[in-house]
Design brief:
With 443 residues, this protein is of the alpha+beta class. The chain contains eight helices and 24 strands. It has a 15-stranded mixed beta sheet that branches. It has a three-stranded mixed beta sheet with strand order 19-18-20. It has a two-stranded antiparallel sheet with strand order 5-6. The longest helix has 15 residues.
Length: 443
Amino acid sequence: MSAAGACNYTFCEVFKPKTGVKVRTEGRITGFNYYESVYSPMITADFTQFDTGGSVQNKKGIVGTLKDALPIEGFEEFRFVITTTMGELNFKNIPMIITGSPGNIDEPQRQSSFIPMVSRYSIDSTNNPNGQVYQGKISDIVIKILKQYNFPIAQDAGDDPKKDNYVNIETTSNSDKIYGNFDAPLDVILKLCKKSIPEDGKDPGYFFYETKSGFKFKSISGLINSGIAKFENDSYAEMHTYNYSGSINAKLKEEKGNDFKILKPPLIQRDQDQIAALKSGVYNVRICTLNTLTHEYTENVVNLLSSVNLGIKQESPIKSGEFNKSYTYLLNPGEKGDSNGGVSKTIMNNPANYEPKANMRYSLLHSQLMQIQVPCNITLEAGDVIKVNLENITEDNKNEQIYNEHRSGFYLILQLCHHFDSANSFTSLLLARDTYGLYRSKK
């Protein structure tokens, strides 16, 4: 069976905590979408269900639709297991939370309802505003907040049960003092992404997001390096490599040979825009600082381009000493105090050290955006690196160069949607890339 064939709704149940009523819905779901994004600290989903009015009894004992007789008002739990040829999407033990039912179509003797859902941790976060103050290494603060509110952190202990290795929380090199300001805990962590510098000293700029395997706090350079390193495993490479040749086998649902082919022409949403790159300070910038305690003024022109890329290393077109954007900072030593509650003369987490480079890293990553649709691959997650081989268009012998070596290569998954309906299962991906080239720079 092809990965693009229909899925199996193995288990689907709506539970209303107020009344304790549970309703199984497997046979009524006509469409299901599941979403992940590196921009979002919560997964989301939605489903469309068809109801003829015999789903559940209302308070008077009269049977009606799931929407009106249960009724669906928000905060209901939805547990589900969807089985595909690539594996399971399993939320039976950790239900998603229904936020309402904004879309309904009532016809004679039937009703169609659109029901959106969010991760239960998003609801828990919103219900627990954080007013605390944290100080220390930023990655330690992230772990502390997640543990404090019982949010899951994926671990990989291997064969050593004593090993405490938070593989999804990448260690930072810098520290800071963070005020909760009574924001939602997940929002507090989001604000730390731009401030964070990896332990290896690579480019600042993190993503904090949730996938089906847990929360992740990862730098862009970390995602790129770890993602490409996984391609040394042949089975991983096979499951994360997609080809586009302009044609697929005729029997899409039956032929496994289509499982790793791009089903539609890739949609290029953005390509390199050098004017925008110059204005946003991707290349050379001037950084000016003034220390309000010592009155020391510094001014430096810095080349910000990254050494960690998905393709070849990009060279700056700007001459040494020239710049296209300026950053200015007033540095106030002691404004955040010290760990003993006194006044410190040190500058904690100097923004001149992270903000210009973080802006460059985010801008550079988004310089190329491409959208593709592939047969459903439930193993893919936001933040994964995949390899895309695009057909070479040439009047010469195509066998001499099968793939386009300019635009083929490694891409980072920014967003994904697993779509299931009565006939098909697809995965739609929004991919990002910072530089061109089929082969990655060695340095």
